[in-house]
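Input (structure):
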């Protein structure tokens, strides 16, 4: 805690925020202790148009702990053999505690889950309280990705080098480079807790105020009663940058709530995302990194802040706000269940009426005091003196569904859902119509809009309660609108069996999609880039399977995908479509090994693209972590180790500041460089903290540390972090 205080001493805004957090905790704690029924009455009045039940079923009320373990650097979870959660809330992996100091105090029990953003089906999702690999939260890849392209800073535009990690594109394609930093609806954690829970996390660079990187997070959640929970999640990323004119300032906030009644259930959240990045266009000459002796006149290295860059007075501002609300009303009956000598009356939901509302509003502004004609091939469609490009997308969705629930009768082994979804999209951009010569209007404010009204019909078949086989299949088809005929069929299944008395988990998933390319791929107009083209539908088929061996700590994954009419940004950052098919094959091996105190974890991915000139991928990417695991003074769990990220040489992507997108390049191959960190990571009761020396390989490996063309990674740094949990 002292280290955190010292690090924050000169930052008044953090002290103010901690004071605000403390007051907020005191306010909510006392509010919930003395006036829960009045707060509940007020909130229920706001949603009085919905039928609410006065009863609450506390099935699965005993404390449980998630048994699955996650591999760092991969983002995958080792199946435990029991398959997908049945949809009931699960207890997060937090330490339980009880006290006899007061009869009013109760044992801590925290349950966390996520829901899908169409029908609100629950899935197990534990809170992040693991001590292992906590230090990875201070590097851009975090614990989710083996290898990635980024612009050196945390919070900067990001693209995974692992093809299977690239999720379906955001509806707003200019948000895609920031998808790694935002929390989607399906990733959101909803909580039910017997006592208020708060977490504060602060990560920082030590000893370098000029180029410091800071990441501050705050999480708070509490229950008003057994049914109603509220919470807030706030994150600030501030990276001043080790290279001139390259900085990131990001702010992310979530406000969420859930109500779990016997018949009526609801989940909602409001999210605010603001990503502000100052752009330098990359360094002017890679020799400042690869041949520092020549460029610096005999010195071993060149000071990063003195390296010339391409752009100045240029920044991108990307904003994305969304409102999500899912609620359902269960129709069913009460029955008496006898367990031992106890007889309980429980509610059995037979059918459910489901409604989901979602509003998304994204915008992007590219602002430059010049038109940067030399950097953008002497192109200026609107103004040769400055640039102020802007694009926007607003999406409004309403989904109505009717489900026949699984398990209400012994012969009902699966659930059925039918649903309809109306989707309205409003695209906004700069109009390509020229203004009259005598007009005083700003041409960058002359707007053009494109509207889409879509009607989708869909259905879902699922089984989550069977002890042997669980599956989920979903299909939807666009019946009206500009995307008429688009369809999306997805499915997954999980099972387990015994092999030589060892439990083996097996899972498979896949999809078939026919989709119209996004409007901005078809039509776009800005100062430096413009296109208006007809594109064919993209057709994608993927099949993937996994085998897990929990007793061996092994997870094997392999898959294949075929893509027809793939859309991409070419070497000139123009939207293009490949007239043909591309095949991608991939395999992944995640393993944990241990011998007494010594542990070795690795995550290796092999992949192959049939058209590297269109879809380039590194053939090999790996993350390895060698560490000692022990307890100091028998109480403090400690990991001391070294980790390494690596990817094989290939044509890494280039980044275009005006579009805010990654695109192809054939100028040079980059790779075969190990990125090594040395760390000490500790966990003591409610606190996790670490200290790490990053990019240690820079001291003894030939410098070629790029993940994006002309954007070198940061030099060596010392980073430290602290995360503290409060359960009252």
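Output (sequence):
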């Amino acid at each position: 805690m002292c280290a955190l205080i010292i690090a924050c001493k000169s930052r008044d805004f953090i002290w103010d925020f901690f004071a605000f957090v403390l007051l907020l905790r005191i306010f909510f704690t006392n509010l919930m202790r003395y006036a829960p029924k009045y707060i509940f009455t007020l909130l229920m009045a706001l949603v009085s148009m919905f039928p609410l039940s006065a009863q609450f079923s506390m099935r699965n009320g005993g404390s449980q702990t998630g048994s699955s373990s996650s591999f760092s650097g991969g983002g995958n979870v080792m199946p435990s053999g029991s398959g997908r959660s049945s949809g009931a809330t699960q207890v997060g992996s937090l330490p339980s505690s009880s006290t006899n100091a007061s009869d009013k105090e109760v044992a801590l029990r925290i349950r966390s889950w996520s829901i899908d953003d169409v029908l609100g089906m629950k899935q197990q999702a534990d809170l992040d309280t693991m001590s292992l690999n906590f230090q990875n939260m201070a590097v851009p890849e975090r614990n989710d990705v083996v290898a990635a392209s980024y612009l050196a800073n945390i919070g900067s535009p990001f693209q995974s080098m692992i093809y299977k990690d690239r999720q379906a594109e955001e509806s707003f394609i200019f948000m895609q480079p920031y998808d790694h930093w935002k929390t989607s609806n399906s990733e959101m954690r909803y909580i039910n807790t017997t006592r208020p829970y708060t977490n504060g996390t602060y990560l920082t660079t030590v000893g370098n105020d000029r180029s410091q990187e800071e990441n501050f997070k705050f999480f708070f959640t509490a229950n008003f009663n057994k049914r109603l929970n509220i919470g807030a999640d706030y994150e600030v990323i501030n990276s001043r940058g080790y290279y001139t004119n390259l900085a990131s300032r990001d702010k992310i906030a979530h406000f969420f709530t859930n109500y779990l009644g016997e018949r009526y259930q609801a989940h909602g959240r409001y999210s605010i995302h603001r990503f502000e990045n100052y752009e330098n266009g990359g360094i002017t000459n890679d020799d400042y990194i690869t041949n520092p002796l020549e460029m610096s006149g005999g010195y071993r290295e060149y000071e990063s802040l003195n390296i010339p860059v391409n752009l100045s007075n240029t920044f991108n501002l990307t904003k994305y706000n969304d409102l999500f609300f899912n609620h359902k009303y269960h129709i069913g009956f009460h029955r008496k269940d006898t367990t031992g000598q106890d007889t309980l009356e429980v509610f059995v939901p037979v059918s459910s009426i489901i409604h989901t509302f979602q509003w998304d509003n994204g915008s992007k502004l590219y602002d430059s005091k010049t038109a940067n004609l030399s950097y953008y091939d002497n192109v200026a469609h609107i103004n040769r003196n400055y640039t102020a490009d802007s694009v926007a997308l607003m999406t409004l969705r309403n989904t109505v569904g009717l489900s026949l629930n699984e398990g209400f009768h012994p012969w009902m082994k699966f659930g059925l859902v039918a649903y309809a979804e109306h989707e309205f999209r409003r695209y906004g951009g700069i109009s390509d119509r020229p203004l009259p010569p005598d007009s005083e209007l700003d041409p960058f404010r002359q707007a053009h809009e494109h509207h889409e009204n879509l009607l989708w019909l869909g259905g879902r078949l699922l089984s989550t309660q069977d002890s042997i086989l669980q599956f989920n299949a979903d299909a939807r088809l666009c019946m009206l609108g500009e995307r008429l005929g688009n369809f999306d069929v997805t499915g997954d299944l999980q099972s387990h069996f015994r092999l030589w008395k060892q439990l083996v988990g097996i899972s498979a998933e896949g999809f078939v999609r026919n989709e119209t390319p996004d409007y901005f791929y078809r039509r776009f107009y800005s100062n430096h880039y413009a296109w208006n083209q007809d594109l064919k539908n993209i057709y994608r088929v993927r099949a993937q399977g996994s085998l897990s061996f929990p007793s061996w700590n092994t997870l094997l994954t392999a898959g294949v995908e075929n893509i027809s009419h793939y859309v991409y940004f070419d070497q000139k950052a123009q939207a293009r479509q490949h007239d043909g098919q591309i095949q991608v094959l991939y395999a992944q091996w995640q393993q944990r090994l241990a011998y007494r105190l010594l542990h070795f974890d690795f995550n290796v991915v092999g992949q192959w693209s049939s058209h590297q000139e269109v879809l380039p991928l590194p053939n090999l990417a790996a993350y390895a972590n060698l560490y000692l695991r022990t307890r100091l003074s028998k109480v403090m769990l400690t990991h001391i180790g070294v980790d390494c990220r690596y990817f094989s040489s290939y044509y890494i992507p280039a980044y275009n500041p005006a579009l805010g997108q990654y695109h192809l390049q054939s100028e040079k191959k980059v790779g075969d460089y190990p990125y090594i960190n040395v760390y000490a990571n500790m966990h003591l009761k409610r606190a996790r903290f670490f200290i790490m020396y990053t990019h240690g390989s820079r001291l003894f490996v030939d410098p070629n540390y790029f993940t994006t063309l002309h954007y070198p990674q940061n030099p060596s740094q010392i980073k430290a972090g602290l995360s503290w949990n409060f359960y009252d």
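Notes: The chain has one domain: 2-726. The chain has six helices and 36 strands.
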